């Protein structure tokens, strides 16, 4: 079992666009936890695949999705790659999309997360 606590670059006011706090089953690659995007928490589930765990898998990657669990639901989906060991990534490069059932807005974000 490992825990990933990473965030995007800190803004001048101390906020971050994205932070994650995930608990992962290192034996199966299953992940769960909280992703905070622009101050709003999303409760996620997903999976990651470790580089070198099978022949031909040269990079570690992951995908996840979740919701804010509110009545006017917002969903988030993310995919990305990791540098460093799966139990403690040194950085995560990711692409995120957030969609809202309340206002029909879609918002994309991409960037790098580093340990906090």
Describe the 3D structure.
With 116 residues, the protein is mainly β. 0% of the residues lie in helices and 60% in strands. The chain is built from no helices and eight strands. It has strands at 2-7, 18-25, 30-37, 40-49, 60-67, 74-83, 91-100, 106-115. It has an eight-stranded antiparallel barrel with strand order 1-2-3-4-5-6-7-8. A hairpin with a 4-residue loop joins β2 (18-25) and β3. The chain is globular and about 45 Å long. The two termini are 19 Å apart. The relative contact order is 0.21.
Which descriptors apply to this entry?
116 residues, mainly beta, 60% strand, globular
Which structural class best describes the helix and strand composition?
A: mainly beta
Main β-sheet, spatial strand arrangement: 1-2-3-4-5-6-7-8
Morphology: globular
Instruction: Outline the low-pLDDT stretches.
Output: none
Q: Hey, roughly how much beta strand do the residues contain?
A: over 45%
Order of helices and strands: EEEEEEEE
| Number of separate helices | 0
Report the major sheet.
8 strands, antiparallel, barrel
Mean pLDDT: 93
Helix content: under 10%
**Total number of beta strands:** 8
N-to-C terminal Cα separation, in Å? Answer: 19 Å
Radius of gyration of CA atoms, rounded to a whole number: 14 Å
């Amino acid at each position: 079992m490992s825990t990933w606590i990473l965030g995007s670059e800190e803004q001048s006011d101390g906020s971050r666009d994205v932070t994650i706090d995930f608990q992962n089953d290192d034996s199966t690659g299953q992940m769960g936890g909280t992703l905070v995007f622009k101050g709003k928490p999303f409760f996620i589930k997903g999976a990651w695949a470790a580089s070198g765990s099978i022949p031909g898998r040269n990079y570690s990657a992951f995908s996840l999705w979740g919701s804010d669990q509110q009545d006017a639901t917002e969903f988030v989906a993310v995919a990305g790659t990791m540098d460093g060991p799966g139990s403690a990534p040194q950085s995560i490069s990711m692409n995120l999309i957030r969609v809202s059932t309340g206002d029909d807005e879609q918002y994309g974000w991409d960037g790098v997360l580093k340990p906090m």
